Amino acid sequence: MKIAVCIKRVPDTETRIKIAADGRSIDESGVKFVLNPYDEYAVEEALRRKESAGSGEVVVIALGPEAAQETIRTALAMGADRGVLLKTEQRVLDPLVVARALVAEIKDGGYDLVLFGKLAVDDYHHAVGPMVAELLGLPGVSAAARLELGDGKGTAEREVEGGVEVVEFPLPAVLTADKGLNEPRYPALKGIMAAKKKPLEVKPVTLEAGGFDALELALPPERKPGRILGEGPDAVPALIAALRTEAKVL
Amino acid sequence: MGGVLAVLEQRDGALKKVSYEVVTAARSLADRLNAGVGAIAIGPVALDATAATTFGADHVVIVADDHAALYQPHLYVRAVAERVKAKDYSVVLLSATALGKDLGPRLAARLGWPLAADVTDVSVDGGIVVTRPVYAGKAVYRLKVTAPRCVISVRPNSVTPVEKSRTATLQHVVLGLDADRPVARTVAMKAPAEAKLDVAEAPIVVSGGRGLKEPANFKLLEDLAQALGAAAVGASRAVVDAGWRAHGDQVGQTGKTVSPGLYFAIGISGAIQHLAGMRTAKVIVAINKDKDAPIFKVADYGIVGDLFEIVPRLTQEIKKVKAGT
Questions:
Q1: Which has more confidence, B22 or A225?
Q2: CA B102 from chain center: how many Å?
Q3: Does the interface predicted TM-score (ipTM) exceed 0.90?
Q4: At B135, which CATH number?
Q5: Which of B:169-228 have CB within 8 Å of A?
Q6: Are residues B143 and B29 part of one domain?
Q7: Topology at the third CATH level for domain A2-204
């Protein structure tokens, strides 16, 4: 099994976001960057599929700045075989630009499976995986929370509002991983040491402009200060009154 | 400038509420662009889209095929893309639901248009300007669309459906063609034993965290949700990671981002990644034993104390309100 896993370097979810002086991006000083949490499920799934097949290769591909090499090393430390960094310092607002750049790298790679996390916790597009499926003309399933593969085909389940869709597809295919697909492993010390010696190819890329201009990036409006209505169950009638007459939501 | 096409969403042959939100958003955008509004509904032959005709569309087309009763990516993307080309639409609007989060990107890729995903507002200021929360709502972009055409997905619950006096014409089209290349097929929809609202769509969300102490105690929240009606039970990351609740119920940066009219955070301290997922709720109520918990900083109303005493009382009082006594 030859598997590509597309990953992204993102700010840790506990990060307090500050806006940069240009008013159009975040202030990255002091921000801890990590492997996108949903991509951990994708990397883990790729490793398990290779392990159960007994042979194959797991290639991690990231599009991002020089520092995304560290993110790729994290995936290599988990057990991936080699990495490719599509290096750009450009800030991308249009997911189609990212998808096209990844497709150029993936299309002649002979992959049986292309995996993504279902979304990146920075830009929240939830888009690049299904776009890549469409551009490659391959079957695609987004937000897979269960996956069975065998005999050149697979079945995935994805949670939708009020139910679970069961999707069948032939390989090769493009899948995006939801939380719950597996329990990602932590890189062991041995893996971390081994990762330093694994191949990591850096390819500079120039991206298209994309279809958006950032007018502004701002912190969300502060919520109006609320109030504590009291302590214990005796405060419940005051809450009911506030919800009915003030907030008018009951 | 071509018109705006709203993509409707159905389940079991009936339109979902998000469909009316999308038509309303499409009408509002089209009025400012001086353009027309079309709507497209894809689903089984029995699909009834009449309800969508009163939200401001000029024209509603139903693309019916019993193979398209469930979401089939290849059929849906083709049906919408063909409609776009036939009528020369400039903007496609859809809802950022599980379906829209898959169909939107596919359409954008198929048409070669940029995608503005999961926006909370669409306006016009020398061009289309969208508001997009990023970092799970910790920051918000205002983006100007510089391309001549675009696909926009709108976050559920961010638009209030508004009925208009005009009534759209209704037209049925048969889809009736299948794939010419390997595709993924949705073969079944497994519904839960009892129909339950999704936290991302529910008008009211009752969420619980570590303060519930053990999984069985979520019964208290389920009782409260039932008393409220049209409410879903959500959960913090801590209790989902502990296996107490399903992943699909998680609210926060690695779960779902929700914007209900009323949000209860019960026994949830309010970690940054949780606040990011629910801060756009219209009204937030927090119940927590720690008066210094960060959740009280975003809550409109708070009660400090033992949730095991407060929640049953609250459920009881809500029942009284609902019974009109």
A1: B22
A2: 13
A3: yes
A4: 3.40.50.620
A5: 181-192, 195-198, 200-201
A6: yes
A7: Rossmann fold (3.40.50)
